[in-house]
Design brief:
Layout: E1 10-13, E2 17-23, E3 38-44, H1 46-57, E4 62-69, H2 74-84, E5 87-93, E6 99-105, E7 111-116, E8 136-139, H3 145-157, E9 161-165, H4 174-177, E10 182-186, H5 187-194, H6 200-205, E11 211-215, E12 220-225, E13 228-233, H7 245-258, H8 263-277, H9 290-299, H10 306-313
Parallel strand pairs: 1-4, 1-8, 2-6, 4-5, 8-9, 9-10, 10-11
Antiparallel strand pairs: 2-3, 6-7, 11-12, 12-13
Binding site for K(+): 241, 243, 277, 280, 282
EC number: 2.7.1.15
Keywords: ATP-binding, Carbohydrate metabolism, Cytoplasm, Kinase, Magnesium, Metal-binding, Nucleotide-binding, Potassium, Transferase
Length: 325
């Protein structure tokens, strides 16, 4: 694997959507109609969100491979990436429209999301650009699985670290997981991949990947890195919109790793960035600047204690201790 610092920057290969967001008192149950009180559109898509987070929140050189239709929905996505400083390789197609997501956002900052992949479904293995000046390849699962696997193999062969955010949740072939250096999942995705419900520590141990990070929403995150378990409580903020918070976490975490930061420090930075992302509407619009993250790191307060987080995960609460299953 390439040592961080031998090359610089992150390549993101993944999805780009235009998000249609309706605000409502609560997310509707099956068969229920809810009257919303506001509507807007925002650039989104897991891949594009993470690329913006790498560039704006992480402050590292970032490139992105994405696919867009030849329609009006593509323009705001490209403008957002450009404004964040993301260099793009765009596959343009008339076969499918630009991907879209329909999001209902509740007053408690919870959301329900339905995605129509559109052009994202046409990204192919051969579309991946060269790995010039790249330390990490960041992938998600909103593009074809065979393309994701091929991109991971290509990165591994080139000595580039492969980071997979295994979202949306689905079962993954073992040959893809063998190419992954760092796996990032939430609790639901962790349970789906491991087959272990209700025990974070046991589920982590059931997955044969070198390193794994589990995001835990308002609690924070935990990780198994080599022979160590790490805990990072979340930062306390007033949440408005959690859409894209996980993507902000992924992008800023990988950016910090590309900067050669210690893993514990990178987790703390990513937790701060994702907390700030919850304070604003829109996945990419909510990504904070590096200065804003550094201010929260200096002045912020944890939302929970390390001991409480350790108990939730089933981890030894002593920081920096070797992994003891």
């Amino acid at each position: 694997m390439t040592r961080p610092g031998e090359r610089g920057g992150v390549l993101v290969a993944g999805s780009a959507n235009l998000d249609f967001v309706i605000r409502a008192g609560h997310v509707p149950a099956p068969g229920e109609t809810v009257l919303g009180r506001g509507f807007d559109t925002f650039p989104g898509g897991k891949g594009a969100n993470q690329a913006v987070a790498c560039a704006r929140g992480g402050g590292v050189a970032t490139r992105m491979l994405l696919a867009l239709g030849e329609d009006a929905f593509a323009a705001p996505i490209e403008a957002s990436l450009r404004a964040a400083g993301v260099a793009t390789t765009v596959v343009r197609t008339r076969e499918q429209p630009t991907g879209v997501a329909f999001i209902c956002l509740s007053d408690t900052a919870e959301n329900a999301i339905t995605v129509a992949p559109g052009a994202n479904s046409l990204l192919r293995p051969a579309d991946l650009p060269p790995f010039d000046d790249t330390t990490h390849l960041l992938l998600q699962l909103e593009t074809p699985l065979d393309s994701v696997a091929a991109w991971a193999r290509a990165a591994r062969a080139a000595g580039v670290a492969v980071v997979l955010n295994a979202a949306p949740a689905q079962c993954l072939p073992a040959d893809l997981l063998r190419e992954v250096d760092l796996l990032i999942v939430n609790e639901g995705e962790l349970a789906r991949l491991s087959g272990v419900e209700g025990d974070v520590a046991a589920a982590i141990d059931a997955l044969a990947v070198p390193d794994i990070v589990v995001t835990l929403g308002a609690r924070g995150c935990c990780a198994r890195i080599g022979g160590q378990r790490l805990l990072q409580p979340a930062f306390s903020v007033q949440a408005l919109d959690t859409t894209g918070a996980g993507d902000t976490f992924c992008g800023t975490l990988v950016a910090e790793l590309s900067r050669r930061q210690p893993f514990a420090a990178a987790l703390r930075y990513a937790c701060a960035a994702s907390a700030l992302a919850c304070e604003r509407l829109g996945a990419q619009a909510g990504v904070p600047s590096r200065a804003e993250v550094e201010r929260l790191l200096r002045d912020g307060h944890p939302a929970t204690t390390r001991d409480a987080l350790a108990a939730w995960c089933g981890f030894d609460p002593t920081p920096g201790q070797p992994l003891t299953p």
